[in-house]
Amino acid sequence: KTLFGFEPETLEEFSLASQISQAEAMKFFVERFRVEKGKKSGIIWWNLIDGWPQFSDAVVDYYGNKKLAYYYIKRSQTPLLMMIGEPQNGVCKIHAVSELQKDVKVKYSLKNVTTGETVLVGEFVAKADESIPVSALNVGDKKEFYLLEWEDERGEKGKNHFVSNAIGLEFKEYVRCMEVCGFETDAAK
């Protein structure tokens, strides 16, 4: 109810809404630690797989099915990750964090999936084993879904998303944006 402003009426909606909530929370934790590379050193996963059938914060259920959070975490733990930080006075910094052992050139684009508009296109050098600010995004108080996509000089591609001012999102719009981005919605069904 806090995230989407409604209580799901069907089991399918409840399942997807609760998995989105879990996935966004875990993505947030991972990315907040990664953006502060050098100051914070990581997260220990406490509950990876359920030991019996239940509702829990595990990312894999008792039957071996991956929950939506598994896919969000997988994207957030790539060796080279671009992410958007939390707003400060309506502006979010865009960061790149690298676990690679050498600098790499990176091309990226940022799309506002809500409006369909490409907001930023750029290039930068991801520094070896560092977190660096790359750009900034003015989000104001709008609730919008963004998609960051990048490719480095080795041909490695990645993508990540960010939802600005997430509390009170429109559930159906969030699901539509996930599908437009090609994210794994079927894992939560």
Characterise this structure:
Strand 1 (80-84) and strand 2 (91-98) form a beta hairpin. The strands form two sheets. A four-stranded antiparallel sheet has the order 4-3-6-7. A three-stranded antiparallel sheet has the order 1-2-5. The chain has helices at residues 11-35, 68-76, 171-181, and strands spanning 80-84, 91-98, 104-112, 117-126, 131-138, 145-152, 157-163. The longest helix has 25 residues, at 11-35. Helix 1 packs parallel to helix 2 (68-76). With 189 residues, the chain is of the alpha+beta class. It is globular, with a radius of gyration of 17 Å.
What is the element layout, followed by pairings?
Blueprint: H1 11-35, H2 68-76, E1 80-84, E2 91-98, E3 104-112, E4 117-126, E5 131-138, E6 145-152, E7 157-163, H3 171-181
Antiparallel strand pairs: 1-2, 2-5, 3-4, 3-6, 6-7
Share of helical residues: 10-25%
How are the strands of the biggest sheet laid out side by side? 4-3-6-7
Task: State the end-to-end CA separation.
Answer: 19 Å
**Tell me, what's the shape?**
globular
On the 0 to 100 scale, the average pLDDT is 91
What does this entry show, briefly?
This protein has 189 residues and is α+β, with helices and mostly antiparallel strands.
